[in-house]
Amino acid sequence: AQSVAQPEDQVNVAEGNPLTVKCTYSVSGNPYLFWYVQYPNRGLQFLLKYITGDNLVKGSYGFEAEFNKSQTSFHLKKPSALVSDSALYFCAVRDRGSSASKIIFGSGTRLSIRP
Amino acid sequence: DSGVTQTPKHLITATGQRVTLRCSPRSGDLSVYWYQQSLDQGLQFLIQYYNGEERAKGNILERFSAQQFPDLHSELNLSSLELGDSALYFCASSPRDIDSYEQYFGPGTRLTVT
Lengths: 115, 114
Prior knowledge:
The complex is a heterodimer.
Chain A (H helix, E strand, L loop, with lengths): L2 E3 L4 E5 L4 E3 L2 E3 L4 E8 L5 E7 L5 E3 L5 E5 L4 E6 L8 E9 L8 E2 L3 E6 L1
Parallel strand pairs in A: 2-12
Antiparallel strand pairs in A: 1-4, 3-9, 5-6, 5-10, 7-8, 8-9, 10-11, 10-12
Chain B lengths: L4 E3 L2 E4 L5 E6 L6 E8 L3 E9 L2 E5 L6 E5 L5 E5 L8 E8 L9 E2 L3 E5 L1
Parallel strand pairs in B: 2-11
Antiparallel strand pairs in B: 1-3, 3-8, 4-5, 4-9, 5-6, 7-8, 9-10, 9-11
C-alpha cells in the first residue's frame, strides 16, 4: 500500500532564510510525487512534480524539490523565504505501478514565514 | 483561478438530509476527482471519473455517490447526512487518466451539517 508522511505539522522560518518542508513516501513500485500549496479559503494549487529524470525539480514561485530514492524522500525547498509563502503545503504520491492508482496526500505542513 | 468551478460555495443542512455538490472541470479535462478535507482526517480522496466512467474509488462512504455527465461536469451526492460529514469538499480535474498529470482544484464547497 502506498503512503506519504509529512513529519512536521508546522515549520517556522524567518523571511529571507532558506526553508525545507519534509516529505517521505512508501510505494510498492516507482512513484510520481507532487507538491501542492493551499492558501486560506482556497483550493490546492499545483507547485511541482517528479516523474523521472533529474532528481532536482523546479516549480512555481521559486520552489524546488529533491527526489531521493534511497531515502524515499521528496523534500520541498526554497533558498529565500517570503512572507507570502505562508500557507499549507501538501505532498502527494501515486504509485505508477498500480493499475487503478489513487493519489495519496500527506497530512499537510503549515509553513509560517515571519517578517 | 484554476478554471475548475464548484457550486455552491457554502451549504448548511440538517442531519438526515441529502445534498448535491456540483463541479465543472477545466475546459478539455476529462478526469474529475472528488476529495473531502476535514480537520481530523486531512485530505481524503473519494472517487475519480474519467470521461463519464468511474475510474478509481477511495474512502467513499456508501451514503455518498457521484457521477460524471456527458458534458463532463460531475455531481457528488451525499445522503443521510451526519454531523461528521461536515467538511470542505473539493473537486479537481486533469486532462487525461494518466497518473503523472497534476490536478487542478476548484475552490471547494463547505458543507455544514447541523
